[in-house]
Amino acid sequence: MSVMIESFDLTRKFGNRTAVEDLNIQVNKGWILGFLGPNGAGKTTTIRMLAGIITPTRGYAVVAGIRTDKEVERLHEVIGLLTESPGFYERLTARENLLYFARFYDIDANSQVDKYLKKMDLWERRNDKVGTFSKGMKQRLALARALVHKPEVLFLDEPTAGLDPKSAKEVRELIMKLKEEERTIFLSTHNLEEAELLCNQIAVFRTRLVTLDTSHNLRNLLFQRQVIVELEAVNEKIISTVKSLDFVLNVAKDGKQLIIELRDFDKNRPELVRCIVESNGKIRSVFEKKHSLEEIYLTLIKEEGVGA
Amino acid sequence: MKEGKAQMRKRIINIIGKEWKSTFINLNSALFITLLPLMITVQALILIYLVLKFAGAEVLVKTLLGKGMETWLIIFPELEELHLIERFQVFFFAQFPFYLLLIPIMVSVSFATFSIVEEKQTRTLEPLLATPVRTWELLFGKALAGVLPSLLITWFCAGLFLIGITWMGSGHLLEFVLNAQWFISLFLLVPLFSLLAFMLGVIASSRANDPKTAQNIAVIIVLPILAIVGMQLIGFTVFISARLFVLSITMGILNFFVLCVAVRLFQRESIVVRWR
Hints:
The complex is a heterodimer of chains A (308) and B (276).
Chain A: E1 3-14, E2 17-23, E3 26-28, E4 32-36, H1 43-50, E5 58-63, E6 66-67, H2 72-78, E7 79-82, H3 94-102, H4 109-119, H5 135-147, E8 153-157, H6 165-180, E9 184-189, H7 192-198, E10 201-206, E11 208-213, H8 215-222, E12 226-231, H9 236-244, E13 248-254, E14 257-262, H10 265-278, E15 283-289, H11 293-307
Parallel strand pairs in A: 4-9, 4-10, 7-8, 8-9
Antiparallel strand pairs in A: 1-2, 1-3, 1-5, 5-6, 10-11, 12-14, 12-15, 13-14
Helix pairs in contact in A: 3-4, 4-5, 8-11
Chain B: H1 2-25, H2 27-55, H3 57-61, H4 64-75, H5 84-100, H6 102-122, H7 125-129, H8 135-170, H9 174-177, H10 180-207, H11 211-218, H12 222-233, H13 241-265, H14 268-273
C-alpha cells in the first residue's frame, strides 16, 4: 500500500512559540486520518505545512510523492484544501466562484464545475449569489471547490464545525463517498464521533503527536477491557465467587450490574459467566463496556498535559 | 515551456476577469471608478470657464497666479503673442495633465483596496493560495486589473478635456497645450503613478481591514501631486520636459522599491500568517 502523506520531524515555530514539533506521520492511499487535538494545538498549522501554504521551520513533508516545501505549484495540482472557514466572493454566484477557482487548474473547468454543482446538490442554486447561501450550502460549495480538480489528497480542516446536525450529516456522507472513491483524506476535527465513524486512523495531537493508531487499538491500549454482567439480583456469594477468580482484576457493583475487569478478556469471559451461573446468579445480559473515543481522547490529552 | 506560459496567461486573465466582475458588480466601487474621474474632468473645465468668465484676466494678474504666469512666460515666450485672457487659458489648461494624475491614483488605489480587503474579509486568500496560482501571478493579475482601467479612464478623461476646450471655443489654443509636457505626463507619469498607487494600495490593504482605512493610508500619494500643481500655479517652478523626465525616473525608482515591498508582503507565508 503506497504512502500518500508522510512527514519527517515536521516543526514550525512562530518566534519563540512552537506550534508544531517533530511531527512524524504516515497516511496510506485511500485512508482517512483523523487529526484530533484541542484548540490551539497546531492542527491548522500542520495542515498549512502539508498543503504547502507555509514552510516548516525544520523537517519536511512529502504529499503524493511531492516535497511540500519545494514544489508548491505541482503539489497544488494534486491536493484539495477545505479551509476552516469556507471563504467565497459573496457577490458572485456559486458557479462564478467555482469557475474562478477551477480555471487555475489544467482541467475542463466548465464541465467539472457543473458536475460538482450537481454532485453537491447545488445545481438549482448555481446562479444565486453565495452571500445568500446557508452555512451548510457554503460548506458543500467549499467541498466542491476542494474536489473540482479531482485531487488525490484532501485536507479537510474542521469540515462540520458550526453546522447544524442535518448539514453536518450531509457533509459526513459526502466524506464517506470520497472514502469509497479511495481518496486519501487528512481530516482535522473536534468531533470525535465523526472521527470514529470516518477514519481508519486517529492521531491525537497537541503541538507534538501524542499517539497515532486505530480507535480500536487506542481503546485497548488505554483501558483494561471490562465486561458488564446484568443479573436479576446481586448477592455477596456471587461477588466473592467472582473476586476469587485469578483472572479477575477488579469488580465493582452498580445496582444489579457487576462491572468486571478481566485479564485475557476473550479467553476468560466464558469461564466468568460459567462461575456466576454456578453460584446461582440469574444472568439477564452480558456485554463489553465500550469506552467512547471521547474518553480515550480526554485521557490522552490529560496525560499529555500532565507530562508537558 | 509554451504550455506553461499559456497556463500562466490563462491564470492571469482569470484573475483580471474576476477582479473586474467583482468590482463592477459593486455599485459603490463601480461609481467611484467611473463617475469620479468624469467629475474631476468636468469640474476642471467648469472651474476654468468660471474663473476666466467672471474674474477676468486683469484681476488674475494681480493675484499669485499672475506671478505664476510671469514665470510661465519666461519659459514659453511664444505665449506672448496671445491675448492676456488666452495666456491664462493656456496656463490653466496646461495644469490639467498634473491634475489628471489624481484619476489613476484614485482608481488604482480603489481597485487595490477593494480587491485585497474583500479577499481578507471573505477569507478567500487561503483557498486561493492552495491552487496552483503563483503569488506573483496573483499580484500581477490584480495590478493589471487595476492599472488598465485606470489608464483607460484617465486617457478618456484627457480626451474629454480636449473636447471640452474645443467646445468652450478655445480649440485654437490646443497647439500651445498639446506640447511635450502634456504627452510625457499622460503616457509616462500616468502609468507610473497608477502603478505606484496600486502598490501602495496593496501595502495599505495588508494592514487595514476595511477599504476606507486602506484608501486613507494610500491617498497620501495625492499630496505631492497637489504640491506640483500648486507650485506651478504660484510660479515657484515650472515642470518643463527635462524636469518631468527626472520626475519620471524618480517615480520609476520609487516604483521599484515599493514593488519590492509589495511583493515581499504578498507572499503565501505573509498573507496567511501576518495579514489580519
